[in-house]
Amino acid sequence: MSNPGTTAPVVTSMPGAHAESFREVFRRHAAGVAIITATYDGVPYGFTATSVASLSAEPPRFTFNMARSSSSWPAVANTNFVGVHMLSTENEGLANRFARTKDRFTGDHWEPGPEGVPILRDVAGWLVGRISMRLSFENNAVVVAEVVAGTIGSDGAPLLYHGGSYGTPTATDYVI
């Protein structure tokens, strides 16, 4: 069976094919890169995320997803406040640090912020939210937070994750 406009076959029920299709489809979906931070028992935690989204403007809320097997899950599961830091292309090093190392908070790239949440310096913007919901589903969780503080940083090109690497959007010739 073919899908109109494509040459690839549509797989509907072959066991195991959905997992590979899922991974490949989402590799082709560009996502903004952010870092989530929290403090638990006086220790800062954080991780790089591509699942951050605006949930509502009134009241201002954001959401993100994470694996409950993450080393940061105990902090998110047991605290009331989290920070979300939107990244620009100048923050690729921070994105790598929070995605690939355990040494995330050594240095002067952060400071304690509102409600004790670690705030990263020189990012495109950050928000601190009071967690209003944690929805666990199998080994994952959806977290919803209502904004209690935030600030806007410098305006730079947003950092995107696409196809296994970081990038930035390019303008098209289309004018509205």
What does this structure look like?
The longest helix is centred in the N-terminal third of the chain and has 11 residues, at 17-27. The strands form three sheets. A seven-stranded antiparallel sheet has the order 3-2-6-9-10-5-4. The chain has helices at 17-27, 73-78, 92-100, and strands at 31-32, 34-40, 43-49, 53-57, 60-67, 81-86, 110-112, 118-120, 125-137, 140-152, 160-162, 165-167. It has 176 residues and is mainly beta. The mean pLDDT is 90.
In short:
With 176 residues, the chain is mainly β.
Break the fold down into its secondary structure elements and pairings:
Layout: H1 17-27, E1 31-32, E2 34-40, E3 43-49, E4 53-57, E5 60-67, H2 73-78, E6 81-86, H3 92-100, E7 110-112, E8 118-120, E9 125-137, E10 140-152, E11 160-162, E12 165-167
Antiparallel strand pairs: 1-11, 2-3, 2-6, 4-5, 5-10, 6-9, 7-8, 9-10, 11-12
Helix content: 10-25%
How do the helices and strands follow one another from N- to C-terminus?
HEEEEEHEHEEEEEE
Termini Cα gap: 37 Å
Q: Give the strand tally.
A: 12
Q: What is the residue-averaged pLDDT?
A: 90
Question: What is the 3D form?
Answer: globular
The strands making up the biggest β-sheet line up spatially as 3-2-6-9-10-5-4
Biggest sheet descriptor? 7 strands, antiparallel
Task: Tell me the fraction of residues in β-strands, as a range.
Answer: 35-45%
Structural class: mainly beta
Radius of gyration, in Å, reads 18 Å
Low-confidence stretches: none
Count every helix, treating DSSP H or I runs of 4 or more residues as helices: 3
